[in-house]
Every structure is written in structure tokens, then in C-alpha cells.
């Protein structure tokens, strides 16, 4: 089913088309996501075609419902993600090239354009699914190969960031100073009941719904609910955690995997998507969020193996920049966070 675009989106797509050599072209748009796949955005597939030549894109646009926009800090989320793609990730790419890093962190989509117009916030990126990338089945825990691939990707990301922080602190501060805090780490959002309470209640209601048939887990969630609230309002501000830029949203729908051949047990590549709540925090945030949310029991029981895998990859990335990992972020400190 074709999707209608607004004038801002049409203009942006036309600009991208011309920049990529499509002066006369056929434009096709379709719904790009299933219900529940993307919380903060509307995904639309965009195909620009002229004869045999075509450009496959994905348009990620913000919801326009005023109540939802306020409750989810939606404008801030889109401005954050646009900044990540157009500034942070671009600087990381340059920094790795300068230092001749071999095993580069490039596990993200290419961005073609964006809009910061109020109520028309959007990003247009390469369509990774047309290149063979797939989502993981969110109803299943991941196997060792997928867990390892994600942890290695995060390790390269954190390592690149912390190398820049150590060797070029002026550049690091310049590019991270405006995104050092979470989009939800502000007094207006946390203290404004009209903004925060609908968001927090929605999160908790989803949790209770998922465990409604387990009275023990339901009782446990009731016990820790005040602690979760305190974490949102106070825990994010602790300077002890302000170590590195993090992805911040590590559930499986923000991870795309590619495979060689028909074997979907071993990914050949991974891409991290949805950078809307990225901010400065502890690398352990990404590690723990992902590892605890997606690992089966046998992998959770063997957590030290995977912690070491992450740290070994992280250390190798730092050494690519001639940095000492034990000086910058020792293994013992990582362990203390996990």
C-alpha cells in the first residue's frame, strides 16, 4: 500500500534523488514496519527508480500526535538521532581512518538526509533490509553467535569513543557536550506529571502484562517499581557513569543481522539502528541491557566468558589507537558495573 508523504518529506526525497543522479525518476513508497516494531517512529520504504537503476531507502518519521510527542520527548529524540548520524558517527569514521584502524566500527546505516522541521522530523537512510539484513525474532533468546556479534560491535563502538576521549579530549567534549545526558534526564520531563507519568505508567503496564500469569514475578515487579522510578529520576545523573557514549536502546528490534548463504545461525555482520536515546553513560549499560534481555539461561550462567569476549574486543580496539585499556577502563571496573 502506497504511503502519502508530506511536503517536507517530498522535498527531502527529491533532493536526495538529484544528489544521487536521479533527475527523472519513479517514486514508490510502502509501509515499512509491522505493528510494535518501532515505538518512536513511522517507517516507510522509499524506492527511487530510473530504468534499471534504483536507490532503496527507509524514511523514519516522527508521530504527530501532540500528547504522544510530549510524553515520549519525541522531538528531542529525533534531534538526538539526527545529531548522532550527522556528527558523532561521522567523526568516529574520520577518527578511525586517521589512525588506520583495521577492524573499524561501521555497524550503522548510511544516512542520506534529515529534517528538523517541527512535527516533520525525519531521517532517510539506506534500506538495510533490501541488502539482506534481518531482525531477530523477539520471541526467542539469541544463540551464542548472535550474542557474541552484538557484544563485539558494542565493544568496538565504546572503544572508539573512549580512544577519542583519551587522545583528543577537546574533540570528544566538543561533539558530546550537547548529548551528555539522556533525553529523559531533565527536570521538565521527570518532574512534570503530565509528561512523565503517562510514559512511566505505560512502561510498567507493559511489564505487568507480560508476566500476568506469574504471580511471583508480578509481586517482585511491584516491589522494585519504586526503585525503577528512582533510577529514572535520579540514577541517570550519577557522574560515576559518565564514561563513554552509549547506544542506549539495546533490544533486538534495534539490531539488524546479515548472513552468508542460508545459514541464519551465524551472522556475518550487524548494524545498530535507533540512536534516539544515545547519551554518555557507562559501557556496561549497553552490555547489561543487551546481555540480560536476550541471553538464554546457559549463556547467562556463563556470563564471565562473554564479559571477557567484550573486554578483549574493547581492548583490541583501544590498542588500534595506541591506547592502554587497563589505564583507560580496566577490566575490574567493568566487572564492578556488571
TrEMBL record:
Sequence intervals crossing the membrane: none
Pfam families in alphabetical order: EcKL
CHK kinase-like domain sequence ranges: 123-320
Name used for this protein in its record: CHK kinase-like domain-containing protein
Annotated source species: Psylliodes chrysocephalus
Taxonomic classification: Eukaryota, Metazoa, Ecdysozoa, Arthropoda, Hexapoda
